[in-house]
């Protein structure tokens, strides 16, 4: 019986490693497909809709935050990025706690807050000012690929793409080409 299982187990191991290799290449392939210089990521799972009425940027307990699944999703995505061997030139996050926690849990190294990634969904940030700040930042990108962890409204305003929690858009700021992808 064991002798019959060995070829099956060997086949399953090869298939699992093939899937892992494909998953690792999703990031690199998406960037290459559009010659992206920026990758936008929507924060990982934070159940609910919008933010509570008592929202305060400086107090995480007044915001919609990641749940256990969202925290695990962020860790898994970070591990997939590190496993791919790809390294971002810069990493920026919205000032919202769900974006900061997503960025922190990915463990990609040093990152910075950038208000040009803040959500204007419920008027907590001014749409025009936010997009103007972001536009200037995007114009100033020089070499490499920058990761920006942000919100659906920002990603949609810049790229025209709608993405779910933890999804990405590889984007070329010159050609405006985009590629939506997932890593988990």
From TrEMBL:
It comes from the Bacteria. Keywords: Signal. Gene3D superfamilies: Phosphoglycerate mutase-like. Residues 1-21 form the signal peptide. The keyword Ribonucleoprotein does not apply. The keyword NADP does not apply. InterPro entries: His_Pase_superF_clade-1 (IPR013078), His_PPase_superfam (IPR029033). This is Histidine phosphatase family protein. It comes from Planktomarina temperata RCA23.
